[in-house]
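Title: Prediction job returns without error message
Component: structure pipeline
Severity: low
Priority: P3
Assignee: unassigned

Description:
Job completed but the reporter wants confirmation the result is attached to the right record. Sequence as submitted:
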Amino acid sequence: QVQLQESGPGLVKPSQTLSLVCTVSGGSITADYYYWSWIRQPPGKGLEWIGYIGASGTSYYNPSLKNRSSLSRDTSKNQFTLQLSSLTPEDTAVYYCAQGVMAAVGISWGQGTQVTVSS
C-alpha cells in the first residue's frame, strides 16, 4: 500500500517561496501509469489541483498557478517537491500530495500539511 507524507514549513512570509516535499513509501514514483499531484484546500473553500509530475518526470500545472509553481522529483529518495513562489495570504491552505492513475487524481493521499502565509 502506497503511503505519502508531506513535509515543509508551516509558516511563511508573503513574497517568499514555499517548498514542500512529499515522501512516498510502498511504491515507486517512477512506476508506469501513476502520477503524483499537489492539491490544496484554502480555509472554507474546495480542493484546488496545483499540478502533477508523471512517472517519466514530465510535469503539468493548473493554468492559474503555472507561473508561480514548479514540480520536481528526487528518484533516489522517492520524493517529489512543490515550489510555489510570490506567496500571498491567499495561498494559505492545507497542502496535500496524492497518487493518481488515469482519471482518478487521488487514489492515495498524504495527511496534509497546513501552510500559513503571514507576516
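Comment from assignee: result matches the submitted record. The chain has no helices and eleven strands.
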